[in-house]
Amino acid sequence: MDSHLKCPVCGCEHVYPDGALWMCPECAHEWNPAETAAENGEAAVEIRDANGNVLADGDTVTVIKDLKIKGSSMVVKGGTKVKNIRLSDGGDGHDIACKIPGIGAMNLKSGFVRKA
Prior knowledge:
Family: Belongs to the YjdM family.
Radius of gyration: 16 Å
Strand content: 25-35%
CATH architecture of the largest domain: Roll
Protein name: Alkylphosphonate utilization protein
Distance between the termini: 27 Å
InterPro entries: YjdM (IPR004624), YjdM_C (IPR013988), YjdM_N (IPR013987)
């Protein structure tokens, strides 16, 4: 996200991410920068798939290549359909939270999926 974020309540520059929310250590305010931007009339960040299609919560996507799961011997095979995705800011570019059949809950990068 932005490294120049400030707390919208007290203006503190020492904010830190906590999942999808940002926290202020001085006033303990929690907020989502995407929602704050939408309230201020700014454009929210669009998450796009490998083909450039805009993704939204609840979409169905298809994995475009085999993905090894870190710390496991399991692999998400290319062509696997993932239903009901949720867009999030999971960090490290993992911006899709989903549940993959036979594997379970995990985060994916939008560059490795295409909209079904």
